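Study both lines:
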Amino acid sequence: MSKARSQNCNLNIWYYLPDEEWNKVSLLYERMPGWIGYTNGNPYWFGQEDDEIFIAASVEPSGLSFQGQMNNSDWNSWINKFKSEATKLLGFEVGEPEDGFV
């Protein structure tokens, strides 16, 4: 098994989306593998910052931000699944702004 590494990703899911859209995102959070719930308003999967493996999300002015600690293969699989499912739910292509997704 490859070593857990620090991971991060910023997505074009903007803080100013209507509550209706954020409700869809919240439902997606709960359907993603490893869901454990909210702590201090932030969603977590697999564990929290003091655990060896975790994913956390926060809403920032720059978009929906994910950070985590896991191996590259598992991270890429998880974040790609999130992007794909979010694209279906929200009706626009979800991706990283630095890759041209707006």
